Amino acid sequence: MQASEKEVQPRVSLITGAAAGIGRHLAQDLLAAGQRLILVDRDLEGLQSLVEPFPGRSTLIQHDFLQDTGLEEQVSAAIETQGRLSGLIHVAGLSNTLPLKALSRIDLERVMAVNTFAAFDLVKHCCKARHHAPGMSVVFVSSVYSLVGSAANSAYAMSKAALNGLARSLAIEFAPRRLRFNCVAPGFIKTEMLDALVQRMGPDYLAELERLHPLGLGSTQDVSNAIQFLLSDQARWITGSVMSVDGGFTAQ
User: Fold this and answer.
1) Which helix (H) or strand (E) holds 225?
2) Angle, CA of 41, 125 and 81, to the nearest 5°
3) For 224-244, what is the mean pLDDT?
4) What 3-state DSSP class applies to 198?
5) Residue 161's beta-bridge partner residues?
6) With 80 as the cut, is the pLDDT of residue 251 above it?
7) Is residue 146 part of a domain?
8) Residue 140 near residue 166 (C-beta atoms within 8 A)
9) Using CA atoms, how far apart are residues 18 and 54, in angstroms rounded to an integer?
10) For tag attachment on the chain, is the N or C end more exposed, with fewer CB atoms within 10 Å?
């Protein structure tokens, strides 16, 4: 077979937090585009329902990032099955809305474990040469609260701001190998997590959130679009950036 006739290998991406919200929408978009995926979430049933329309194209890993065991071995095995990674996207996150006087070190450690340390561990493992394809793009889902202050959000803001710093440092460290690291910083997105927060805080809270976004609240599609751009070759000269996807929240 001539080189020009060889089948082009599909891209392979690993997505955490893929069972719901932003991660689920991104996974659906990438599967529809023909990618092969490694999907990580503690909700195995959610992952199974996601990939049902796309049989044979994904490896599912049930994992809770509050448990620090077993993931590296499962990721290595999945890469052996699906192929080396062209994309790594850390979406999994844990929210925390507590004032400082009520925030304990244990609360902080739980948020950091899921939002920050999981990203660190995954990227350290997946940046091994045998695990990634040339030009792998890594995207961390950060938050507008990594860029602006908000009362009673210190743990969450701290965890997301750390992702921004991690991406910038790794962008420089791995530039000689042409690996790229970026963050997207969404504003408030219409997800199950937001619904739960509004139920707890009341309808006035939702009205205030809408007021803070000049273009209105965002959708999971809006964030998926931004991530797909950063994964693509169109973004090959973008690294170390934090892209606000927030309907104007941080422009005020």
Assistant:
1) helix 220-231
2) 65
3) 98
4) helix
5) none
6) yes
7) yes
8) yes
9) 15
10) N
